Amino acid sequence: MPPKLHMKFGGDAEPAPAPASSTSKPSSKKNDVSNKSTKQHSTSNASRAPSNVNQNNGLKRSQDGNPKSNTPSESQTSHKSEHDDSGRARKSPKLSSLDSKKSETRAPHKPGAKANDTQNAKVPYNGPSSQELQKAAKELEEIRMRLPVYHKKNDIRWDLRNNDILIINGETGSGKSTQIPQFLYTEPWCQKKLVTVEESDGTKKEINVGGMIAVTQPRRIAAMTLAQRVAAEMGSPLSKGSVRAGQPGTVGYSVRFDNQVPNGAKIKFVTEGMLLQEMLSDPNLRKYSAIMIDEIHERSMDVDLIAGFLRRLVHGDLKGRGGVPLKLVIMSATLDQGGVEAFFAKPNTRPDYVPGQNHGRIIAPDLIEQMALRNNGAQIPYIAGRQYEVKTFYEHEPKEDYVHAMLEIILMLHTQEPLPGDILAFLTGQEEIEALQAELEKYSQMLIAAVPRMEIKPLHGSLTPDQQKDAFVKVEKRFTRKVVLATNIAETSLTVAGVHYVVDGGKSKVKQYRPHLGMETLLIKPISKVAAVQRSGRAGREAVGKCYRIYTKADFKEMDEDGKPEILRCNVIEAVLKMKARGIIDVLDFPLMDSPDVVYMEKALNQLYAMGALQPDGSLTKNGKAMAKLPLPATHGCVLIAAADESADCLLEVIDILACLNTDQEIFLHPKSIEEQEEMSNTRADIYRREGDLITLLTTMQRYAADNTNRRVWCESHLISVRAMTMANAVRKQLRMQCVKLKLLKENPPADPQPFEPVTPERAEIIMKVFLKAFVRETAIMGPDGSYKTTNGKETIQVHPSSVLHGKKLEAIMFLQHVYTNKNYAKKVSSIQANWIAEQYALC
DNA sequence: GAGCACTGC
């Protein structure tokens, strides 16, 4: 029997491109009805357009066919791909479970629901009644039946009854993520089975295996909204406590800090990181009958590891599962799956497959067809998703200043194209966005009355969620066009509605690991073809659109097909630690979809050994095992364990610092005005410490935790991010709990608020020396020329302006982060003594 | 004197 089947979705039963409103998306507000005056005026030239634009005839790319006016060199046909899966509320900006609006991400709640119609519920149930849930589900049924994937229900069931692995190529919009789990959970193979298993120590016992499907997602928001959608479709309550007589929930989700899995759930949406952690404690995934990996094409480090572990598990002897097979459904939105196919096939079905050596891709163009034939031709034809045509225009020649070129294109589009139709421009980072915003705003002041107004909205990761939301708000002012200037956050994570025009700078910042420097740097690099198509697709979600690429057709052809997977770009220390924790002794030989360079791997092994995570024989030490289980980077785990040692005994303090370091946002906000700057320097006096950023963060957390009036007010007065501190507090709680579990802490620490007591300089020294155990290579000593030179590599490095030690001349520094932008910067800096460094180097 | 995007029992 062939091991698997490849499927593609789309389905010719699919209607022609339809407006979003015909799909099941939560809210697909049509753009406002354009008033006639808008259409009449907006095509007129901007007679007072900016001078430099006018000099170039401003409107360079009018489609008048005149070559002198820089007409589009080529127009491409429609871009397929990327239409939201039903129920995926990508239109809303990212929600955090830490948000106060958490409840909004829960199952549908109807105001009229009776709160007390359950008899035996342990937890008061406030959601809708089961009748109401069923009624709502019935209404959704009709929408479900229109999804392309719906008609393939029986094929998919049949295929998985006969195969263990199914690879599905479904465009977003095909409904694969929401529907396939529902097709499968009632299957005979998906039921819990009582079996005898053999433990690793040889003992045998009877346990239940299977009964649940896990669906992985790269993002929390996707896991939560998909679970919410599927729960609604199934008429199932979605929350932990909502088990009611005869009505347990069938669907749940599990993401960090938020676990909503009803007892007896059959379908569970999880983040990739969450499943990876689960695999460390339950390598055989005994709870599950099937794992579905969604969006595998995004190729995060975590998904690559999961794929490696699952491949071994599925093709293994299944002793740890009492012989119960684990079904695997791999889902991707991109066509190219030669690599994935070959990787998951049993090695003997692909003699040309060499484990761990498939850098790039092994593509056998005929492979897909062969696989389908072996499976009785069950392959499903692929057709375009629900996407409007997008015309693509290229530059004739490369642009030196692409930001300026973008400015010209945006002004051209704005003055020439009718309303409605917003513009989305892709830039590389905040700096560029702000520069272009300033320019555009300057010009928009000069537009004559006949030309619509422009509203410029920045959109990037370091904006607060509220500021991000601003970019999504439909501009209500009449005769106004919204221009969103975004980083690649708008490529996959967030979707802006109302966009008809995309301007693509063709570049983005990518993290790149440099093993000889031991540094990860952010580099501006050309995007991949896949990313370019993804970007242009953003123009065709609601109507026919246009995409202007600020690069030539030749540049496009030169682009990589795909982005490089993360595991080939980043420091693999976490990946190596997880492989070791999963019992893989020879990590260099372990087959992955793409194996990192041996140099990177050896570097990681050495680092782990130096941190005391590895035995000389290559197996994990007790500390190494603990490090793998902690939700922290390996270096931070090392620090935490060192802090628990009797000789240091500063675990609680170090947890406070690590909690602050492991938020997804900076704790300290940047003053925007001189007034803020002044107020800040007054209020922050009680938290800043001369020892540096680490002790300052410790003081911040201690002050925050000691506050018993209003933490929000406290944060605001110190110009500290409420959101970051809320997350830091959640991390702190999680770390404390895990330290109790790992027996690093004897008992739960006393609850807050505890009185604030400043850290003594002696104690501060102990704490910083604990950090030095993992960061001894991240140190620099002041040279005779007044600049810091790193001890590892003798590079010149400067203290980043965000550090409390910026501008201070110190004997030596330790830094936890470094960035290379226009200079080599050290961040999270502490003031240390040179002899501490020598002492620590001597120890390792 | 400064910032790609995700994510973790």
Automatic annotation (TrEMBL):
Residues 34-76, 116-133 have a biased composition (Polar residues). GO terms for molecular function: ATP binding; double-stranded RNA binding; hydrolase activity; RNA helicase activity. One of its GO terms (biological process) is positive regulation of transcription by RNA polymerase I. It catalyses: ATP + H2O = ADP + phosphate + H(+). Residues 157-353 form the Helicase ATP-binding domain. Residues 1-133 are annotated as: Disordered. The keyword Hydrolase applies. Its EC number is 3.6.4.13. Keywords: ATP-binding, Helicase, Hydrolase, Nucleotide-binding. This is RNA helicase. It comes from Hymenoscyphus albidus. The lineage of its organism: Eukaryota, Fungi, Dikarya, Ascomycota, Pezizomycotina.
